[in-house]
Amino acid sequence: MKFTANDIANLIEGKLEGDPGVIVNKVSKIEDGQPGSVSFLANPKYTPYIYTSNASIVIVDDHFEPEKPVKPTLIKVNDPYGAFAKLLEIYNNIKHKKSGISDKSDIAETAKIGKNVFIGPFVSIGENTEIGDNVNIYANTFIGENVKIGADCLIFSNVNIYPDCMIGANVTLHAGVVIGSDGFGFAPQQDNNYKKVAQIGNVIIEDHVEIGANTTIDRATMGSTIIRKGVKLDNLIQIAHNVEVDENTVIAALTGVSGSAKIGRNCMIGGQVGIVGHLQIADEVRIAAQAGVSSSIKEKGFTALGSPAIDYNNYKKSYIHFKNLQTLVDKIAYLEKELKKLKAKNN
Amino acid sequence: MKFTANDIANLIEGKLEGDPGVIVNKVSKIEDGQPGSVSFLANPKYTPYIYTSNASIVIVDDHFEPEKPVKPTLIKVNDPYGAFAKLLEIYNNIKHKKSGISDKSDIAETAKIGKNVFIGPFVSIGENTEIGDNVNIYANTFIGENVKIGADCLIFSNVNIYPDCMIGANVTLHAGVVIGSDGFGFAPQQDNNYKKVAQIGNVIIEDHVEIGANTTIDRATMGSTIIRKGVKLDNLIQIAHNVEVDENTVIAALTGVSGSAKIGRNCMIGGQVGIVGHLQIADEVRIAAQAGVSSSIKEKGFTALGSPAIDYNNYKKSYIHFKNLQTLVDKIAYLEKELKKLKAKNN
Amino acid sequence: MKFTANDIANLIEGKLEGDPGVIVNKVSKIEDGQPGSVSFLANPKYTPYIYTSNASIVIVDDHFEPEKPVKPTLIKVNDPYGAFAKLLEIYNNIKHKKSGISDKSDIAETAKIGKNVFIGPFVSIGENTEIGDNVNIYANTFIGENVKIGADCLIFSNVNIYPDCMIGANVTLHAGVVIGSDGFGFAPQQDNNYKKVAQIGNVIIEDHVEIGANTTIDRATMGSTIIRKGVKLDNLIQIAHNVEVDENTVIAALTGVSGSAKIGRNCMIGGQVGIVGHLQIADEVRIAAQAGVSSSIKEKGFTALGSPAIDYNNYKKSYIHFKNLQTLVDKIAYLEKELKKLKAKNN
After folding, report:
1. Which residue of A102, A103, A106, A217 is the best one to mutate when testing the B interface, meaning the one whose CB has the most B CBs within 10 A?
2. Which residues of C are tagged catalytic?
3. C164 with C302, same domain?
4. What value of ipTM does the predicted structure carry?
5. What is the pLDDT of residues B254-271, one digit of tens each?
6. From the CA of C321, how many Å to the nearest CA of chain A?
7. Could you tell me the residue range of the domain that residue C331 belongs to?
8. Residues near C330 by Cβ (< 8 Å), separated by ≥ 6?
9. Which chain A residue has the Cα nearest residue C290?
10. N or C: which end of chain A has fewer CB within 10 A?
11. B171: enclosing H helix or E strand
12. C223 & C300 share domain
C-alpha cells in the first residue's frame, strides 16, 4: 500500500509543507526513520531528530517551526500523536480488509452471508449460520451450525466457533481462538469413573470485544457463557462454562476463570491470574498478575494480590517481612536466650 | 432438532400429563422457561416456578401433584434430574453425530477408514492411519501417518495428531488440541547453543479420555507419553514428554506437567498447577489451584497447596500468620524494648 | 522406514558383528527391546540386558566383548550414545522430510517458493511471501502476505503466521503456533471504553529457533518483536508485543512475557513464570518455575524464585520459616507471657 504526502494530509486534515508527491509505504519512529516511511513528532524531547531523520514524511504540531532546514515533508496538525494513531488505524483497516469468497471454502447452502464479506480458503461455515456485512474470515477457520456473527467482525485464521454461539458486531478474534468448546463438567460415579455432563448451552460475545490468539471460551452447561460489550481478552486465556465478564473489563494473558464466576465491569485483571468458580468480582476491581482469587470481592475498586489473594498493600507489607523472616527468627532466638538469663538472675 | 412431548416421554420412559403433541427444540431452566423448551423440576425449592413457567414441557417427580393448574405438559419419572441429564446426552449425541466423508478432505490411499465415519472438509489423514467405526472428525483437523484412532471418538476442528500416536475408543478431543508434538529436549553444547534431542516416541491415549481445547501433549523422547483410561483434561494444559497420567485423574485448565512425571489414579489437580519433572504423585492426591509441586508426593490422598506445595492445612495456617506478619514484627519490637528495660533494671 | 544393520553401520560408521541383513523399523530401550528394533548399550549398568534383549540390533562400545552369546546383531562404535542420537536425528529428519506441493493448497501467484519444498494440503500462502529451499509446511497452516521464511524450516500443521513476519533458517514451529497476532494495546477512553491501538509492527524470528505447540508471539506495536538465534520456546507460552529474547535463551511451558520486556542471552526460564512489561533481564539469569518477575534483574547469572521474585536462596530460607510460622507465633506468645511474669516480679 502506498500513499502520497497529499493523500495523508487529506486523511488527517493537515497542512502540507514540502513535496506533496513524496510516496510512503510504511511507518517508522522519528529516531530511525527511513526513506519511504511516515513518522510523527509529538514529544519535544525528540525534536532534534527531525533535522537528521530520513523519514519521507513527519507529522508535526501546528505550531512547529523548524530552526534549520528539514528533509522530510511536514504535515501540520493540531494533535500529531492522535493524527498518527488515526493514520495507523486507517492503514491497518485497509491492510486486513479483503473481499471475495474463496472457491476453496465450504459454505452450507442454508448459511446466510452478508454483503461485502471476505471468506478465505479452507473456511467452513455450517448450516443456518448467519454472517453479517463486512465480516472478514481468514483461512482455515471453522464456524459450526446456527452461529450468528454480527457486522464488521475480523476473524483470523484457524479460529473455531462451535455451533449455536452468538458473536456481536465489531468483534475481533485472533488466530486459534476457540469459542464454545464443552465446559469441563463431569459427574463422579461410584466406580471412580466420571460421567460427562452434557454441555448444551452456548457462548454469547457482545459488540466491540477483542479476543487474543489461542484463547478458549467454553460453552455454558445450560444457558450462556457471556462476554459483554467492550471486553478485551489477551492470548491463551481460559474462560470456563457459565462465566460472565461484564463490560469493558480487560484480562491479560494466561489467566483462568473457573466455572460460573461473574466478573464486574471495568475490571483490570493481570496475567496468570486464577479465579475460583462461582465467585463474584465487583466493578473496577484490579487483580495483580499471578494472584489466586479464592473468595468473592465485593468492594468496588478493590486491588488484590497474592495466592490466595488479599488486599494489595497488605500483601506487599507482609511480603517485605517474609523476605526478612530470618531476621525475625534470629531476634526471637536472641529474646529467648536473654529472657532465660534474666529468669536465672531473678530466681 | 425437534421433539414432541411424546418422543421425550418414550426416550426417558416417563408418564405424560398434558398435550403429547407439543413440540420443543431447546432446553431451559424452569425459572426462565420459554415456549418451545423442555425443563425439569427436581429441587422442591423451585416448585413455585412450575405455575409461572412458560416452558412447553417440564419433567417432574412421579409423586408431584400440582396444587394449581400448570401450563406445561408434564412428564413424570422416578428421577427428574437423571432423566433430564439423559435427555441432554441424547440431544448432544444427535447434535454432534454426523456422517459422510467430505470430498474436500485429503485422505491417504493407505489409510483405513471404519464404518459410519464422519470426516469434515479440509481434514487430512496420513498414510497407514486407521480410523475406527463411528468416529467424527471435524473440519481442518490434521492426522499424521501411522496413527490409530479407536471407535466412537469425537474429534473437533483444527486438532493436530502427529504421526505414530495411538488414541483409544470413546475419546473426545476439543478444537485446537495438539497430540504428539516434540518433547522439549535440547542438549546444551559448549558454545552455548543447544542441540535438539530427537523425539522419536509417541503419545498413547486410552479409552474414555476427554481433552479440552488447545491442550498440548508432547510425544515421548523414546517410548510413550501415556494418558490412561478415563482421564479428563481441561483446556490449555501442557503435558510434557514421557509423562504418565493414571486412570480417572482430572486436571483443570492451564496446568503444566513437566517431563517424565508420573501422576497416580483418581487424582484431582486444580488449575494453573505446576508439576516438576520426574516426580511421582500417589493415587487420590489433590493439588489445589496454582500449587507448585517440586517433590514427589508419596502419601495416597494427600492434599497439597502452595508453591513449593506443602500440606494444605499447614499452608493455610502459615498463610494466616503471613497476613499478620506486621503484628508479629510489632510484638517482637515491643519484646525487645521491654527486655532492654528489664535488663537495665537488673544490672 | 526400514533399515538393515548394514545401512545403520554405514550411517554411524560402525563395525558390524552378526547378521548384516537384519531389518529394523523402530528404536527401543535395551531392557525392553523387541524384534525389529535397534537399541544401544552405553551405561555398563545395563550390560546384563544385552544377553536377554530381543532387539534386532544393539549399538555397543568398541571395546565391548560379550561374555555369553548374544542374539542381536552388534554395531561397534566409539561413542554408542552419540551414535544412537545421531541415528535418531537421521531417522527423524527422514520422517518429517516430505516433498511436493499439494494441489489442495492455496498459494498466491506472487509468492516465491524455493526448491525442494513440501507444502501440504489446505495450506495458504499470501501475496509476495517468500519460502526458502527445503522448507516443509504441514497441512492447514496459514501464512499471510509479505512473510519471509528462510531455508530448511519445519512448520507443522495449523500454524498461523500473520503478514509481514520474518522467519530465519532452520526454524521449527510446532502445531498451532501463532506468530504476529496483534499486541494487546488499548487506550482507555473517558467513557470507560477502550480504543484499539493499531499494531503495525511485525515479529522477527532468527535462525535455529524452535517454538512449541500453541505458543503465541504478538507483533510489535511499531518495530519488531524479536526472538534471537537459537532460542527454544516450549508449548503454550505467551510473548507479548515488542519483547526481545536474546540468543540461546530457553523458556519452559505456560510462561508469559509482557510487552517490551528484554530478556538476555543464555537465560533459563522455568514454566509458568510471569515477567512484567518493560523489564530487562541480564544474561545467564535463571528464573525458577512459577516465579513472578516484577523488577529488572541486572545481575548476570542471578537466580530468582518467588512472586514477586527474589534471590533463590533467600526465598528458600524464608519459605522454610513460612512453613514454621505457627512455631514462631507460639514462641512469641510464650515470650510475652514470661516477660509479663518477670516484669511483675521486678516491680
Report:
1. A106
2. 241
3. yes
4. 0.90
5. 999 999 999 999 999 999
6. 6
7. 315-346
8. none
9. A290
10. C
11. none
12. yes
Q: Choose the mutation target among B140, B142, B161, B331 for the interface with C, i.e. most C CBs under 10 Å.
A: B142
Distance from C-alpha of C28 to C-alpha of C37, rounded to nearest angstrom: 6
Q: Which residues of chain B register pLDDT less than 50?
A: none
CB under 8 Å to B230, separation ≥6 — which residues? A192, A193, A194, B206, B207, B208, B209, B247, B248
For residue A117, tell me if it sits in a domain: no
Confidence band for C244, pLDDT divided at 50, 70 and 90: very high
User: Residue B332 has which C-alpha cell?
Assistant: 517482637
pLDDT tier, A111 (very low <50, low <70, confident <90, very high otherwise): very high
Q: Is the peptide bond before B308 cis (omega within 30 degrees of 0)?
A: yes
What is the grid cell recorded at C154? 519445519
- The amino acid at residue A275 is I
Task: Decide: residue C55, CB within 10 A, 0-12 exposed, 13-18 middle, 19+ buried.
Answer: buried
The percent of residues above 90 in pLDDT, for chain A, comes to 83
Q: Using CB atoms, which chains have 3+ pairs under 8 A with C?
A: A, B
Instruction: Tell me what pLDDT residue C1 has.
Output: 62
With beta carbons under 8 A apart, name residues in chain A contacting B172: 182, 196
Within a domain: C236: yes
Which contacts (CB < 8 Å, 24+ apart) does range C168-171 have?
Answer: C168/C205, C168/C206, C168/C207, C168/C208, C168/C209, C168/C229, C169/C132, C169/C207, C169/C208, C170/C207, C170/C208, C171/C205, C171/C207, C171/C208, C171/C209, C171/C210, C171/C211
Residues C304 and C176 reside in one and the same domain: yes
